[in-house]
Protein 1
Amino acid sequence: MAFISGVGNTRYGKIDGCTTMGLAAEAAHAALDDAGLRPKEIDGLLTGYATTMPHIMLATVIAERLGVRPAYAHALQAGGATGVAMAMLAKILVDSGRCRAVLIVAAENRASGQSRDQAIQTLAQAGHPDYEVPYGATIPAYYGLLAARYMHQFGVTDVDLAELAVVMRRHAGRHPDAHLRAPISRDDVMASKPIALPLRLLDCCPVSDGGIAAVITREPTAAAKVRIRGAGQAHFHQHISCARDWADMGAKASADRALADAGMALGDMRYLAVYDSFTITLAMLLEEIGFVRRAGAGEAAAAGRFDLTGDLPLNTHGGLLSFGHCGVGGGLAHLVETQRQLAGRAGERQVRNATTGFVHGDGGVMSSHVSMVLERV
Amino acid sequence: MTETISLSTDPIARRWWADVAGGRIGYERCADCGAAQFYPRGHCTACGSRRVETQYAAGTGTIFSITVVHRPPSPALQPFAPYAIALVDLDEGVRLMAHADPALAIGARVRAGFTSFGGRVVPRFAAE
């Protein structure tokens, strides 16, 4: 069995003078304290990547910084799905008996460690260097292509997408560590400046600084007993020009594998944490996985189904759209919030009866999918 | 001409862009199973054959999706903004990314032309 025994995070946003290693250490110490473990009790360490700190062995850099000597350590890369992928590997490591306590940590000074142009150009490299990037494509452009086609195919509207941004911002207003907390309206989203039409500024997540971590252990080490019950992945393409069936990007395949691994059904999930780099990302994932009908995410948001009191409470920390996106840590925040919800420690954001949780990460342009099912035991 | 965005060192890609500069859009067809593919790879992703041949598209196709970029990745590309990036389904059965007339809608029939963007000739599709 694998338990998420501790979690911790820094504030997300623009943090002047912060460094990737400083953020990583702060988040790691918070997660270890939460788990009731000393650094030396960690025997596995996984991390992702940081665009502001390219390094060939980032996990060992973090291990040394923390003063730990793990029996197993390396970095993973699956874009925005890296956070959930780290948790899945940590589960495999403790289930196999190879490790007792694995620290997963993600941090990056993505906002303050580089210029906005640098960030946009680095991220655009998720596209094909020879057949996409030369057209002046950006991550918002790739998702703009997704949005235009998906809206055309299923009848999703600008209003539907705006509703999702509004809910994420409302949730973030209840989290003291969120990057963007000021309420926004549907009209604000639709009047925001065009980035890659049909996507506008408030359809896009911000670029943030931040660090976040979790400790996955074989036995519970703290009062919180949240178990990873199952996990799954799917990888159908890397580049958006090579995605074949846009109604089947791999999200459902990944979710189905995680649910089968857990021996549970979609309808058993009491809390949802779904990747939301753009409003269209969230709509497509929720609809393909099957939590709502096609073109139904906007109406579900407007009807309050994603609120704390709704039947599908979703991304109560504010998601990437409003809690913030610092790279790997952006997607890991969904998992950390799920642990807090299932442990009953989400404070004013607490959802009643959050006994099970579904987490989904998406890397690239709907390219890498990793899903996870958590339960309170 | 100085190119704002550099290509990789892949010789297949360099040849493809040289063809574009000459007004031709290449794609690959497998000599064994007949499958058409884009982007060119030098091997067939349908059957694994290494015998693929470069063929040239007629230049006609249909807009699969289109976005209008208002925020380019670098200041050097700002003079071109807003510009439209489209995914075009060519009549030969392959899909490629290219520039397009921003007024085009999904499903529009289009024909390839060529334009200068960031110091490089790129395919740009307009209404047929």
Protein 2
Amino acid sequence: MYRVRVDSVEAGYPGFRVRADMELGEGLNCLVGPNGAGKSTLIRAVVGLLRPIRGAVYVDGVNVYRLSPRSRARVLTALLPDAPTLHFMRAIDVVLLGRYPHSYLLYRAVDEAMRVMARLGIGDLAERRFAELSSGQRQRVLIARALMQRPRALLVDEPTVHLDIDAKVHVMSMLRELSGEMAVLVSIHEPDIMYRFCDTVYLVWGGTIRYVGPPEEAPLTEIYAVPLSPAIGTLELPAPRGEPLLHLVPGAGTCTPVMRRLAAMGVPFSVGVAHVGDLDHFVAAAMGAPLVSERPYAEISDSALEAALRMALRSRAALHCGCPFEAANSRNLALLREAAQRGIPVYSLSRDPPVGERLDAAGLAGLVRKLG
Amino acid sequence: MFASLFLGTVHIPPGKVLAVLGWDFQSVDGYIVNGIRLPRVLGALVGGAALAVAGALYQILLRNPLADPYVLGIANAAIFFYGLAFLVGIQVGLPALAGQGVYVSSSVMGAAIVSALLLALSARYGTLYVLLFGVALGFVFGAGTQILIALADVMKVGAFVLATLGTFSGVTWDRLLAMSVACLPALAAALALSLYISPYVLGEEHAAVMGLNVRVARISVIAVASVLTATVIAYVGVVGFVGLVGPHISRLLLGTESPQRLVPTSALTGATVTLAADDMARSLLPPLELPITAVTSLVGVPVLIWLLTRRHVQG
């Protein structure tokens, strides 16, 4: 396995600097950070497109800044975000260009190019015009081009922008696979991609690398204003502020789509009682909604029940998201009955409501309108 | 090419042409074929190839299909410096050269000065701006040339205008030889360069991560293209449109923008278009000769439009 050491590289433009120390080891290395944090600047500096102010990049102990452009391109290369505009060239012509650092006579490497394309599952695209390919296919053609250079390190700047979710997963899986053969550093900014594909995360923020480690522990919440639920790896909208209009009675993830709808509509809500570890609990906590929790699988305690009841009584209506009632959450049913008795309208998304008036998913917006 | 030898104000039967071709400079027919028509045909071939290759190089470098020596102002600069030498007597470059060489070195210097300016601008502002700067500089040098003409001796102006109007009629063996001495090595250099700059089609940054030394590529492309442009201008004057249309025709015919294929084929299409245009220039309204630029445009434009629309229908 090749080792890449980015040694105090400092680069930037007037008014903007980014500096980094990195040791790219095995697995997929990801550069994560908000727009303008310096991810692209860093990648461009490491690969030599931008003259660094100081520092060095070593691949297997060799300082690549000391190499000629041609020899450097045999050691490391980059995939840049903007796909080139080409009118005529076929996919294979583009792949063949990757042969350039090894030989000026590109067309002698047709066999190798076909092998690389077949390996990446794009052998059938060889004769197609590059311009006619989808963004995902183009990205794979460009990866094939990079592989033709036979680099020991591959840097990829935002490979997933403009791609649909299938193509995103495809391209990222491909890069992960390649990370077994060469050092791979990918800049991304989607947290869901980060949690699912990255082995080591380098968090870039404020001109420097603030965190190096596994994605689960990356302190994304310090960087992004939008709430994230790290265990699920998705972003959530923040819970709307204000006096809750609806109190949601959760369970088994049934309230998650409801909370997302309400957050999108800007309707304040409260949640309880939710068991820790329940999907509803992750999402409500990430959103920052008023929430009453109970330990996993434990029967709901008196204090939790009381707190949730107070919440329900302060809102205009209570909504049972449809979770069936069993031993651990049976007191949530008691909560709903008590609320109904005290004059709070109770609705249920369950097909067979144990309490309250039946509501289907489409009826939620109507209910909000009626209450608001 | 052979057909071109048969065309001319003086009618010479085809059999006679073939009989005298290549050896007979003594008889009238022989002199017309070997002394006048043959150098002219070869001159059109070399000049056309040179201009089209220069155009192809500029288009690859700037990644812009509009680029050619005229659009970029390089031709206008060459003409201005030619005028400076011819009309005013100010020589830039190598004063040791005698005769036409003086003007050639002046035009090459003019082309080189503008090219260097464009290079510096491209390094600072990126290649996108080069086209705009080039167009602007072209107007500046065009204006300069007009001022020179206004101030100069009337007799000289006539000769200057004729010399820069663009015609292959003045190409003699001597001139062909001199032109080829500059053009053929530059064409060979362009062929070698086409291998060197192949990653350029993906754009400068992609090319750089593929190991192209972008600075070397820029400088050598502009140097070679300037020599080609300025030499043709110094010997035959302005031959417009070939630099633009030659590369486009080969791009459309070949269906590729790869420099490795574009540069050599542009030489062929440029030579062909120019020769055809020259044939028409001297045979449409005999014994009058039309300016070559008028004919290159008249021949080149329909071909280009036909190819462009044909491709559009397919696409």
